[in-house]
Amino acid sequence: MTNNYYEFFCPVKVIAGKSALEHLPYELTGLAAKRPMIVTDKGVRAAGLLDPVISACEESGLEIVSVYDDVPPDSSTSVVRDIAGVYRQEKCDSIIAVGGGSAIDTGKAVNILVSEGGDDIARYSGAGILKHPLKPFFVIPTTAGTGSEVTSVAVITDESKGVKLPFTSSFLLPNAAIIDPRMTLTLPPHITAATAMDALTHATEAFTCMAKNPLSDAYATAAIRKVSQSLVAVMDNPKDTDGRLELAQASTMAGIAFSNSMVGLVHSLGHATGAICHLPHGLCMSLYLPYVLEFNLETIREPLGELLLYLEGPEVYSATPAARRAEASISAIRKLRDALYKRCELPRTLKETGKVLESQLESIARLALDDGSIMFNPREVSLDDAMAVLRRAWV
């Protein structure tokens, strides 16, 4: 599992803490941005999460020129085109994306159009297309899971063709990510649980997949420790700002980790299940994680065993024989999923979701085999292998 050569890249400035939002105007003015636009969704606005952002700017004499709050859960090329039109009409000069993965991806795509020109975002799909830095771009996550604030990737749906368009470029990375626990205090329990499991999966796959490296390992293990220590506490006390900040930081750390070491079969199956059954990404990650780790077990026994230290702490780790630590890590993840099911009924199997039919499993498996993530899975996956994992995840 040791790579003789690796690259590690994360130039995003992270501003984190209980007054992080108040630093946004300083960051904007530092890039000569005076007419920012907010890109967000109806839920974020209804929860009052824009208020502290707007207040922080107004108190520093900065005006938010435009607020676009109609980003859908699965953003599309037409939405990106509409927002870019508003940006140009209002003569904005920067973007602040406030929300979860969809709002952040939309902000990235809008930034491509307003920086590069034109209305056809599909022209810029793929890797290595962008050649120049984009407009000033800032991200304020309102969930603690996707890690999108530190990734160089965006995915937007092309409705006319019915496909998801991927965009990959280091120029998509925001100038700064603002991690403030106030932004996740109103998350419902099931979203808190699913997004934290998304972060845990990012970190676990980053630590066990083929492109792992010493720097990504450091971020991954720190993220796993934070989720393990804080998630159940936050579920029991949703207003715990310290715990919320820990989960938000874990999400960012896991995002940095997997951006540099990639992910594997959990994500391949999750992407396919999301496309076919429209299950939320974080829920898919939570569902598949233990089953994929069992499938990969003999290939990842050593690194998976190391994760027991971060999942359960030093006492359990030292009391567990080295030969049993990998299995104990999987048991720890199952125990965490059971705790979440008890508190918010976050499904642990495909059957428990009530939204997946057994007849859809083969379609999910076939689509998963075409997903780019599968290349970095530590064990090769055939159609029969994918079907076996899905059947185990079914019941």
Automatic annotation (TrEMBL):
The answer, when asked if Membrane is one of the entry's keywords, is no
In this chain the Fe-containing alcohol dehydrogenase-like C-terminal domain maps to 192-394
Alphabetized InterPro entries for the sequence: ADH_Fe/GldA, ADH_Fe_C, ADH_Fe_CS, Alcohol_dehydrogenase_Fe
Segments forming domain Alcohol dehydrogenase iron-type/glycerol dehydrogenase GldA: 11-181
The record's keywords, sorted A to Z, are: NAD, Oxidoreductase
Cofactor(s) it depends on: Fe cation
Instruction: Name the protein family.
Output: Belongs to the iron-containing alcohol dehydrogenase family.
What this protein is called in its record is Iron-containing alcohol dehydrogenase
What is the native source organism of this protein?
A: Marinobacter daepoensis
